[in-house]
Design goal:
- About 80% of the residues lie in helices and about 0% in strands.
- It is rod-shaped.
- Helix 1 packs antiparallel against helix 3.
- The protein is mainly α.
- The protein contains 3 helices and no strands.
- The protein starts with a helix and ends in an 11-residue tail after the last helix.
Length: about 80
């Protein structure tokens, strides 16, 4: 009976780890969306000077796009 209980606990912990991983991935993706919204606001407010005044925000958004993608828990290698 304890063998089955151990397997059940192992499965529960693995599912919990997966949920946390996916949740963190979505949080990072939503952070990138917030930065994008701020970048759009900056572009609208600054007008023709947006290249100089919003550069730091666009660089931050570009780096977040590379790093903060939504990832699943399965890794498939091709």
């Amino acid at each position: 009976m304890s063998e089955y209980a151990d397997k059940a606990e192992l499965i529960k912990s693995k599912i919990q780890e997966r949920e946390e991983f996916v949740r963190e991935s979505w949080v990072k993706a939503m952070e990138a969306r917030l930065v994008r919204d701020e970048l759009v606001k900056c572009h609208r407010l600054e007008g023709v000077n947006h290249l100089e005044n919003c550069r730091w925000l666009s660089e931050k958004y570009a780096s977040m796009l590379k790093e903060n993608k939504v990832k699943g828990y399965k890794k498939i290698d091709f």
